[in-house]
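2024-03-11 09:14:02 INFO worker-7 job=invfold-0412 stage=load source=structure_tokens
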């Protein structure tokens, strides 16, 4: 089963995305922030990561820096899922480190297409 890690500090978003992914036959791995996601990555390597940028503690950009600097993890595709204003002004670096991005509120067809395209490219 394809594993997708979802990194977001909002429990409601995590629950919603988990339900959406499960409905499509994906296994969701949930992390409430960048630090928790890095810990989980020591135990399991997902096929794809959906990442929020604006999180307390370790934000999405710092998570991406650490992910991309780790030889064992750097090739995991990452789709940033964040509000448009955050994507536009917050982090040019995050956009360079991520593989794709979609904006919140999440449009399901856009999310499914982005995931399918990213997984296709990975193969």
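2024-03-11 09:14:09 INFO worker-7 stage=emit residues=123
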């Amino acid at each position: 089963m394809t594993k997708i890690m979802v990194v977001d500090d909002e429990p409601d978003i995590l629950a919603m995305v988990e339900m959406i992914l499960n409905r499509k036959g994906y296994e969701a791995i949930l992390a409430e922030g960048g630090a928790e996601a890095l810990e989980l990555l020591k135990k399991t390597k997902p096929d794809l990561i959906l990442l929020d940028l604006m999180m307390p503690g370790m934000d999405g950009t710092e998570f991406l820096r650490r992910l991309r600097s780790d030889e064992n993890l750097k090739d995991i595709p990452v789709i940033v899922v964040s509000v448009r204003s955050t994507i536009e002004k917050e982090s040019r670096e995050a956009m360079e480190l991520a593989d794709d991005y979609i904006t919140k509120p999440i449009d399901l067809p856009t999310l499914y297409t982005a995931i399918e395209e990213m997984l296709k490219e990975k193969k």
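2024-03-11 09:14:09 INFO worker-7 stage=report msg="The two ends are 14 Å apart (CA to CA)."
2024-03-11 09:14:10 INFO worker-7 job finished
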